[in-house]
Write a structure and sequence with these properties.
The structure is a homodimer. The first copy, chain A, is α/β, with parallel strands linked by helices. Chain A is built from 17 helices and nine strands. The radius of gyration of chain A is 22 Å and the shape is globular. The two termini of chain A are about 30 Å apart. Chains A and B meet through helix 1, helix 2, helix 5, helix 6 and helix 9 of A and helix 1, helix 2, helix 5, helix 6 and helix 9 of B.
Chain lengths: ~350, ~350
């Protein structure tokens, strides 16, 4: 997997040791978040993609000052989102695909969730969260019908959704068998919808808060599979699932809870599955050392800051939860180029 | 200088292209700031230095939950401040020197300035600053007697102060000539004090706001050179410097202003100097491309967010300001391991 961690903007070989550079870059790292957010809000990436490549042209196009634009664009070069030659900027391959609104794979909308004060303010008193061992926010995102999840469903679909096709493929949805699929905490609904698109014999039952299911229903409609899409509004812990499911989708859900809570849920999932039925669990799965690869490993702090007792679980922790809930086996699959993995567990 | 920029925590070779990893790591980068700040406030680095190396021992020592401590310490491993073997953490060489309070070179106090809402809140609406071409904060740090500068003088001395010894050496303070030294915007006063300590024939005149000069006077007293330390309270632009100076220190000052304002100040400095007198200007000096090395290049955004029209100036821009103000020559000197450079300009 990831063999080596590279936390610096400056390459270590260039810095005499000891050096305060890592300290200075890290304590100012919040500016990277804000610079990327500002660049997306000003739509700089699309502007460059459309040929506005100098500070002056960008300033005019994005209704900003030339000085401000030059400074921001230079900063985006340093942190890896643009390149610069003379006074002209270019998109990197990643920025072309993910940050220009001309690209069908554009994920720019995700800033509306990931950089929203609703989420980021959880980290303003991280000392208190570390002392407590969980979020100190009174408005936890796990509260019924929290508006955060509507924003999540709308903003994060382009970033998270593409894994849906990969999961459908892993499950062999194209085999075209008659499937009853339960999509727990469906959010934007794209995981269930991907299965329905790949398998015309699949029927999807989506569980989530009523306000969120509205987004999933819109997406099912747009995908032309609304006739095979049913919703079950309510908490995944309380709602009656029914039974005889071939597939259960459990995407980005377990990390919000502690292991006993997850095992309780998994027993309920187990009961709803047919014999031989499968669960696809999409998660941030760090290695057993908990400090690699960087994205899943750092996701543990995201959960510490924003949930009462969630975490990024290792494979062995996830496998144990499934085993304790009665599942026969669990296998982990990477989903490149995403930073997540999927666990396929069998009843 | 810096040959290559390395913005990722994950090494590029490990990520299939295109990948959303850089986007995700960057949009969450604010958590790096908060994690480092929390670690310093909980005094984790000192605790590890004193042998408390497991999550449990650290939790007990720092009065935190074991779960919160494990998550934070793992995060500090990923971003490069700790190493981990089994469930035991160790300090890196940098953390030992700069973040353990047992170290005389500890710079931990700098978070009180660099991560204070007073500074970081300037970046909460970066779009507005880019549109305007300067800070949108109403309470600009350039206002008379802004309390920010007292905090700066106290908190930043350990991070910024060590350059004082290097500047004293560059100026050959040990030659022991009778020197009259003007320290403009003296702050903590450590640059003038370093010269006074190296040259018993040097007299220092420190200019700053009265509330800040209080800190400089304390430091001069502690260094045993108070008898050769005089203060001139007021704005560097308005106060009467006197004349016949051998040396003028202009440290971390020019980046707050635009070039015409700086040239006006430099003409005043020029008039106060003896013929052949020198100015030592400590600055963040990016290369002419403005996108390297990372620390000075990104400092331009710090100024965009927090000042009306300041910037990180390149050598050619600084040299031009000094030339326009009547100086004969300017030379740039790196100050490793700091991330700053010093310009020595001669009348």
């Amino acid at each position: 997997m990831v063999a080596r961690v590279e936390p610096l903007m400056t390459t270590p070989a260039e810095i005499p040791q000891p050096s305060p550079v890592l300290f200075f870059e890290t304590i100012n790292a919040y500016q990277r978040t804000q610079a990327l957010k500002a660049a997306i809000e000003l739509d700089i990436f699309t502007a460059i993609d459309e040929g506005e490549v100098t500070p002056r042209a960008l300033a005019k196009r994005c209704r900003a000052s030339e000085r401000g634009m030059r400074t921001l664009a230079d900063y985006l070069v340093v942190i890896g989102f643009l390149t610069k030659k003379e006074d002209q900027y270019s998109l990197t391959p990643d920025s072309t695909v993910f940050l220009s609104r001309r690209s069908p794979a554009c994920i720019a909308s995700a800033v509306k969730f990931l950089a929203s004060p609703m989420l980021t303010d959880n980290f303003r008193d991280l000392v208190a969260a570390v002392r407590k061992g969980g979020t100190v926010s009174e408005q936890t995102p796990l509260a019924p019908e929290h508006p955060m999840w509507v924003e999540f469903a709308r903003a994060m679909a382009p970033l998270i959704g593409p894994a849906g096709e990969q999961i459908a493929k892993l499950l062999d949805a194209r085999s075209g068998k008659t499937w009853k699929v339960l999509d727990i905490a469906a959010g934007h609904g794209l995981f269930g919808i991907a299965i329905a698109k790949n398998n015309p014999q699949a029927e999807i039952v989506a569980v989530d808060w009523p306000n969120v299911l509205q987004v999933a229903k819109e997406n099912a409609q747009a995908a032309g599979i609304a006739g095979r899409y049913r919703t079950l509004p309510g908490s995944a812990f309380d709602v009656e699932y029914g039974h005889g499911y071939d597939i259960v989708l459990l995407t980005n859900f377990l990390h919000h809870f502690d292991p006993p809570t997850n095992e309780k849920l998994l027993r309920k999932v187990h009961a709803a599955l047919k014999e031989g039925g499968r669960v696809a669990t999409l998660e941030f799965v760090p290695n057993e050392d908990r400090v690699s690869p960087p994205v899943p490993a750092t996701f543990s702090l995201m959960m510490l800051g924003s949930t009462p007792s969630g975490d990024a679980y290792t494979f062995s922790e996830l496998e144990r939860m499934f085993r304790n809930a009665g599942f026969r086996s669990s296998e982990l699959h990477p989903l490149p180029p995403t930073f997540q993995q999927v666990l396929i567990s069998r009843k």
